[in-house]
Design goal:
The chain is an all-alpha fold. 75% of the residues lie in helices and 0% in strands.
Length: 415
């Protein structure tokens, strides 16, 4: 394959791009996985995760294939409008905005629940609605101040999240019991019927596609290094998800997840369940600290993306008043949702997966197909030909159908 010239005299190192991809993927959404996957349990869920990883990796590579035919820095908007037309561009833009809004709501819901649990550990009774609202206002203030303020705070939070992650999961894996993981207590359990329900959540847990144009701007038109960033970044996320499933499903019995889901499946309920079976004060503290940092980093990243998208869409300037207007339309709708429906974390993540099928699966496949017809993709072409494009399209449409069927209660539910 051809290697095109980079935009700078020296190409940045691989690690930076890998961290961008892995850091974007791994967030508070991972807390939904054990709950929604409890029906399919560990091995079927592992199969769903690996299949989703494969499809989401290749859909990202298809964006790269199309993007390489445009200038470094060309965004989703430019590429989609040129290759697929204004109609698809509008649909794609709406799906991106919807995903960012619904995830902002999800993290307000998650932050309220985990902060309520955190304050309860300190013998303070703070309602989840009030905690989520207060946290959202703090994030809104930081985002309003400047992108630099968000960047600095995110760096601190990410560093703390990484440290607490390894401390927490090292401890969790040490408590895993094979009898729990292999679910020996249930006689003739059924897993396969619940597999389809996991797919939209898996898809939402591998969202990084908006970063592909950013990597091309960072590295220049060098498909080899960007491909390696996508492969290693997504593999790291997959590995951590597997460890997370081992740590939760190896400690919490399968029937116990029914009660967790009935309580809304929010982060605090899962943390309480882990604390109850492990009976470790130190591990309980680590779980609480990690979950707080996980929510904070996801919240900052998603809201900054939504803030910048809306500022560009409505052409608000970067003055204090312009940023205030952008912050208002960024945070007010999901904050109202967080106050009215404080326990909607699982539902929100599921709907994010539904909308993400458009810009993370269906549109990338269409872009690759259109790019090959117009340009021939001389710099880079995803392997697999039309069969791979068809697989990604079927994957995206299938995920959308699964969520729609689930919304009408037409799929089996583990209860």
């Amino acid at each position: 394959m051809a290697t095109l010239a980079t935009t700078s005299t020296t190409t940045p190192g691989l690690l930076g791009g890998v961290v961008i991809i892995a850091g974007t993927i791994i967030g508070a959404g991972m807390f939904s996985l054990p709950v929604v996957m409890s029906g399919a349990w560990f091995f079927w869920s592992l199969a769903a995760l690996v299949f989703t990883w494969f499809c989401m990796l290749h859909s990202g590579l298809m964006i790269l294939e199309a993007n390489l035919n445009y200038r470094a820095g060309a965004s989703f908007d430019t590429i989609t409008k040129d290759l697929l037309g204004k109609g698809w561009n509008a649909i794609n833009g709406l799906s991106i905005a919807f995903v960012l809004y619904i995830l902002t709501y999800a993290y307000i819901s998650a932050s309220g629940s985990i902060l309520q649990h955190t304050f309860a550990e300190m013998s303070l009774a703070v309602p989840a609605r009030l905690a989520g609202l207060g946290f959202a206002l703090i994030v809104a203030l930081v985002v309003w101040m400047s992108t630099k303020a968000v960047s600095r705070l995110t760096a601190i939070v990410l560093g703390a999240k990484v440290i607490t992650f390894f401390l927490t999961f090292g401890s969790l894996l040490g408590h895993v019991t094979p009898a729990t993981l292999f679910n020996v207590a249930e006689a003739s359990p059924s897993y396969a019927p619940y597999l389809l329900m996991t797919l939209p959540f898996c898809l939402a847990s591998f969202g990084y596609h908006g970063n592909v144009p950013s990597l091309m701007k960072y590295y220049g038109k060098d498909p080899r290094i960007i491909t390696r960033c996508l492969v290693w970044g997504t593999l790291i996320a997959l590995g951590l998800y597997v460890i997370w499933l081992l740590g939760t499903m190896g400690n919490i019995a399968r029937p116990a997840f029914i009660d967790i889901a009935d309580k809304g499946g929010n982060i605090d309920v899962l943390v309480q369940a882990l604390s109850g079976v492990l009976n470790s004060r130190m591990l309980d503290l680590l779980l609480v600290i990690f979950s707080n940092f996980a929510v904070a980093s996801s919240f900052l990243g998603v809201t900054l993306g939504l803030f910048d998208y809306l500022a560009d869409l409505f052409k608000f300037d970067d003055s204090a008043f312009g940023r205030f207007k952008t912050a208002l339309i960024t945070f007010l709708p999901p904050m109202i949702g967080g106050v009215l429906w404080p326990n909607g974390f699982l539902y929100a993540i599921g709907y994010a997966g539904l909308a993400a099928t458009i810009w993370a699966a269906i549109v990338p496949a269409l872009l690759a197909n259109a790019s090959r017809k117009r340009f021939g993709s001389p710099a880079f072409r995803v392997w697999g030909g039309k069969g791979m494009i068809a697989l990604i399209l079927v994957f995206g449409i299938g995920n959308a159908l699964v969520h729609i069927l689930s919304s009408f209660n037409l799929l089996p539910v583990y209860h």
